[in-house]
């Protein structure tokens, strides 16, 4: 390699370095946090649900746009594990904690610990009981999700039928969905809840409990599920027993798998949430909090009922 070639390569490298440096300095100048590397923590009730994966990706994308990093943890439906995860995030001195609570009441010790450490907590997807201990709650209109499913069902049943409810009593979001559903169908005396079981939002458990319900009930007209994974488990149970004719099944989330089931005629409808929007709003709210700006205490994100008539599925 000649001396002239070496010089040319060095010049090119210097130009490239200068360009990259200028872009970086421009970014730092525009960022309200300057050169500070922000650190965020998140703990979710269960990351085997595609909904929470999308939610986390949205938060991650938003915080990384401001030179931040995100530590995401899966509590696997164990409140004690989630409390330990919050303690660990506090010890790592994260700037903000995003929390999707396993148990809306049982998570209180973690909220107190974060408060003592002066670390803001942004609750996502499912509210906590002690909401005065958190800085902001960003959730779907969970109650309305249940209402939308119930209204659709009432029309299909003509105000008469036997209904099964599959629930998750420690997750406030699930509680609100079922409350919205029951408050609506309770107006119709000839619609009766003939069974209710707990699935904790898990497909496998939902399939198991639904199978037991099918075996012990002669007539089931509809099943209200707290989320889409539960609905998929219910569908599987009916398919296993060959008794899924004319049973209306409802979920909540709007997950791709659920939309596919609607397309196939196996799921009646799902009250679709917007995990991308919830994640973006939560992350932007966290950034505002760190800037010292005023933030809202509670943010509701609308839901939409998706059925065969308005389904848009690739």
From TrEMBL:
Protein origin, superkingdom: Bacteria
Keywords of the record: Membrane, Signal, Transmembrane, Transmembrane helix
Annotated InterPro entries: SBP_2_dom (IPR025997)
Transmembrane segment boundaries: 6-27
Occurrences of domain Periplasmic binding protein (ranges): 45-292
Family recorded in the similarity comment: Belongs to the bacterial solute-binding protein 2 family.
Protein name: Sugar ABC transporter substrate-binding protein
The organism of origin for this protein: Clostridium frigoriphilum
């Amino acid at each position: 390699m000649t001396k002239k070639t070496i010089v040319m390569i060095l010049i090119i490298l210097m130009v490239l370095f200068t360009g990259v440096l200028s872009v970086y300095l421009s970014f730092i100048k525009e960022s309200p946090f300057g050169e500070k590397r922000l650190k965020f923590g998140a703990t979710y009730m269960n990351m085997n649900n595609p909904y929470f994966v999308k939610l986390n990706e949205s938060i991650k994308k938003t915080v990384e746009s401001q030179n931040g990093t995100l530590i995401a943890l899966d509590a696997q439906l164990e409140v004690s594990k989630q409390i330990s995860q919050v303690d660990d995030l506090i010890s790592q001195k994260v700037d903000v904690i995003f929390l999707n609570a396993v148990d809306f009441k049982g998570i209180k010790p973690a909220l107190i610990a974060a408060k003592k450490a002066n670390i803001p907590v942004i609750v996502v997807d499912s509210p906590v009981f002690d909401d005065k201990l958190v800085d902001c709650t960003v959730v779907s209109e969970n109650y309305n999700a249940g209402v939308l499913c119930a209204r659709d069902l009432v029309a299909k049943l003509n105000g008469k039928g036997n209904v099964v409810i599959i629930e998750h009593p420690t997750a406030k979001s699930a509680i609100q969905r079922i409350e919205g559903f029951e408050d609506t169908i309770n107006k119709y005396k000839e619609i009766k809840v003939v069974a209710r079981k707990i699935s904790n939002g898990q497909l496998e458990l939902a399939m198991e409990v639904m199978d037991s319900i099918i075996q012990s009930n002669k007539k089931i007209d509809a099943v209200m599920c707290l989320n889409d994974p539960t609905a998929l488990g219910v569908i599987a149970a009916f398919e296993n027993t060959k008794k899924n004719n004319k049973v209306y099944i409802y979920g909540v989330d709007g997950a791709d798998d659920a939309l596919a089931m609607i397309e196939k005629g196996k799921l009646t409808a799902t009250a679709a949430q917007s995990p991308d929007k919830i994640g973006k709003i939560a992350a932007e709210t966290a950034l505002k909090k760190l800037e010292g700006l005023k933030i809202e205490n509670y943010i509701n994100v609308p839901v939409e009922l998706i059925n065969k008539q308005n389904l848009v599925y690739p």
